[in-house]
Amino acid sequence: MEYNIALQFEDGVTGFIKCEADETVAEAAYRQKFNIPVDCLDGACGTCRCHCESGSYDMHPDMYIEDALTESEAEEGYVLTCQMIPESDCVIKVPTSSEACKVGKSVFKGKLQQLNVLSESTIHFGVEVDNPDALVFLPGQYVNVSIPDSNETRSYSFSSIPSANQAEFVVRNIPNGKMSTFLSDNATIGQEINFEGPFGSFYLRPLIRPTLFLAGGTGIAPFLSMLKSLEVSGAHHPVRMVYGVTNDFDLIEVEKLEEVKQNHPWFDYRTCVANEDSIHERKGYVTGHVDNEWLNNGDIDVYLCGPLAMVDAVSNWLDSINLKPSNFYYEKFTPSEQ
């Protein structure tokens, strides 16, 4: 038995290691040449103190001293990687940079296998990577995709899940944009496409309470990955979504949301369009279409992915209704960085 351990570094880089049964995280990391902070290996110094965001593990108090990790810290999910033995897949936050730990960014080479214009504002593409077993990420994360015949990259969130045959992306078609021009005018099926990553602290945590997804434009992409993952793992708490766009033609992949809703009673969603000339049944911004009962008196996790202005607007809206959610995770983008 072995488990996937995601190591989240402070600079946004995520590294993945395999941890075998009865092997500590520190042992597994060093075996795979990840130099995470560690010193004594005896649970006495606290150098390897990290925070486990999700997953189960064995780490009894008699395996370390209180000077290294207090009882209250252990109850909050802090761990000593030199004593932590995973019992499931885990996500661990490492309080240092990937560079300090000599963790290189993973580069994936692949070929373009899908290319679809979903609307005049949105393009979908899929890449078949050369080493699919090595493509591991957390649903919601992004990679830097290289623009062929240039030294530039664009940051795109996965709309697929790690177990998919292809890495898929839903991106904005920006007039005269370098990646948009390539995809619209020059790309051919079978052409080499490379990317590096994964990156980002915007990813799906374990569902332990009702959850609200707020998506703006192509910010729908990471939520597609999250929903596909939840279809596999299941959800024991309600997941609601409001998906807002500027124009009617910007609404894409709604049929996939509808499919999840029809097949899984834990999911519900609604869409809205900001343009006043829209013929859509719901106009305005996402904050105007969130039911009060969805907010669960603040005992809720909120995930938001959209343009910078949307992130600011939602933050202001939460302040205006005097609601502090249990957790508020967000990813913001600009026109050149999805």
List the keywords:
338 residues; alpha/beta; Elongation Factor Tu (Ef-tu), domain 3; Rossmann fold; five-stranded mixed β-sheet; 6 helices; 18 strands; globular
Task: Kindly provide the radius of gyration, computed on alpha-carbon positions and rounded to a whole number of angstroms.
Answer: 21 Å
Euclidean distance between termini CA atoms? 37 Å
Average pLDDT across residues?
Answer: 91
Fraction in beta strands: 25-35%
Q: Briefly, what CATH class of the largest domain?
A: Alpha Beta
- Let me know the number of strands: 18
Q: List the uncertain runs.
A: none
Order of helices and strands: EEHEEHEEEEEEEEHEEHEHEEHE
**CATH fold category name of the largest domain:** Rossmann fold
Summarize the amount of helix as a percent range.
10-25%
Number of domains: 3
Shape: globular
The helix/strand class is alpha/beta
For the largest beta-sheet, the strand count, sense and barrel status come to: 6 strands, antiparallel
Strand order in the largest sheet: 11-10-13-8-9-12
> What's the number of helices?
6
CATH architecture classification name of the largest domain: 3-Layer(aba) Sandwich
The CATH homologous superfamily name of the largest domain equals Nucleotide-binding domain of ferredoxin-NADP reductase (FNR) module
